[in-house]
Amino acid sequence: MPNPRALTPSSRRSARLTALGFASAIALFVALPAPARAATITVNTTSDEFGAGPQCSLREAIEAARTDATFGGCSAGASGSDTIQLAAGPYVLTRTGPPDESNDKGDLDYGSTISIVGPTGAMATIDGGTSNDRIFHSQPNGNLTLTRIIVKGGKVPAVEGGGILVTTGTLTATDCTFRDNTTVGPTCTGGKGGAVMVLGASAAFTRCTFRGNDGRSGAAIAVSGSGAEATLANCTISGNAATTGSGCTDTTDGIVYVEDHGDVTLNNVTLADNTAQTSGSTAIVVTGASTIARYKNSIISGTCTITSPASINSSNFNAVSSATCTRNGTDDISTAPTLGTLSITSGLTETQVPALGSVAIDEGSCTDSFNNTVAVDQTNTARTGTCDIGAFETRCSTTAGCADSTVCTDDTCAPATGCAHANNTLNCDDSSTCTLNDVCAAGTCGGTAKCNGNGTCSSGSCTCNAGKFGSRCEHTVSVSAATSVVAGEVWTVTPTVTNAGSSDSTSSTVSLTIPAGASFASGTGCALDSGKVTCSLGSIAAAGSANVAVGFLIDSAVAAGAAPLTTVSTASFGETTGGATTTKSTDVTRTSDLVITSSSAPASATAGAVGVR
Question: What is the pLDDT of residues 126-142, one digit of tens each?
Answer without folding.
Answer: 999 977 899 999 999 99
